[in-house]
Specification:
The chain has 285 residues and is α/β, with parallel strands linked by helices. Helices cover 42% and strands 17% of the residues. Strands 1-2-4-3-5-6-7-8 form an eight-stranded mixed β-sheet, with helices on both faces. The relative contact order is 0.16.
């Protein structure tokens, strides 16, 4: 779970609804202060995350001259979603992101964080013509393989199937606070984290949890899609093993880039450094 450090929106960052031919999506957006935008950056969050995971990054990218849009995916926090788990396949998520890019004028610089990276990859494979680049941020080639992670995900998915989502969150928090690296957030942030988690459509969050257990490795297909690819992770990222991300980058024909002093959420831990890596990649030809 990504934990924002503050809920205050920087100057120029504002909530907005993105209307597409696949429905409406809650977003945080920012425009450059001056001049015509260089293009559009579309930011897709991960499992149990939301658009707020990108708040400081939205601000930094806009200051570099890019119109920047961070989204809540279907069924995620402030974007509603159906109660049918069949609506939460990678194909459905990917088609949503294609529709978002089209609604924003196409040719987006696409950034997917964690599970959002799997969705971003699916979007590019669905319609590569509407994306200029794709960045896999702290993401992997497919499902997790670590047994401890898989067991935890299975328990969470079963809980979401059988218990009120508020109770699932409280049980998850009881578990998390016992972890050695747990850091208690400020009271307002803690309240937001509970509100965000319980704002998810339970069937959707359960399905997304299962996608982290069953998604196929489609790295070779992405390598052939014709869209420039970047792989970035924090130096202490604890999602997919760093060796797995390095190997994925190699198969994509690139070298993974590392954000110093950052973990699984570089957009929060080091937004300025993350933005610099992104814009350098956007401008590279």
């Amino acid at each position: 779970m990504s934990t924002p450090r503050t809920l205050t929106l920087p100057d120029g960052v504002h909530p907005a609804t993105l209307e597409t031919d696949r429905g409406s999506f809650a977003t945080l957006q920012a425009q450059p202060d001056v001049g015509i935008p260089l293009g559009t950056v579309l930011l897709v969050p991960g499992w149990t995350g939301s658009k707020e995971d990108f708040t400081p990054l939205v601000h930094h990218l806009a200051r570099y001259g890019w119109r920047t849009v961070a989204v809540d995916q279907r069924g995620q926090y402030e974007t509603p979603g159906p109660d049918d788990s069949a609506a939460y396949t990678l194909a459905e998520f990917g088609a949503d992101v294609v529709a978002m890019s089209k609604a924003l004028g196409g040719y987006s610089q696409l950034v997917g964080h964690s599970f959002g990276g799997l969705v971003a990859r699916e979007a590019v494979l669905t319609d590569p013509s509407v994306f200029s680049t794709i960045t896999l941020l702290c993401s992997g080639p497919g499902a997790f393989s670590d047994e401890a992670k898989l067991q935890g995900l299975q328990m969470l998915a079963m809980g979401l199937d059988n218990l009120p989502i508020e109770q699932v969150y409280d049980l998850k928090l009881e578990h998390d606070v016992k972890e050695p690296r747990y850091v208690r957030p400020a009271d307002d942030v803690a309240a937001f984290l509970r509100k965000r988690f319980t704002g998810n459509t339970p069937a959707g969050l359960a399905a997304v949890t299962r996608r982290l257990m069953d998604s196929d490795d489609r790295t070779e297909k992405l390598a052939k899609a014709g869209v420039r690819v970047q792989v970035v992770y924090g130096e202490t990222d604890d999602g997919w093993p760093l060796a797995v991300q390095d190997e994925m980058a190699e198969r994509l024909g690139v070298r993974a880039q590392v954000v110093p002093d950052a973990g699984h959420s570089p957009a929060i831990d080091q937004p300025a450094a993350t933005a610099r890596l992104l814009v350098d990649f956007f401008h590279k030809r």
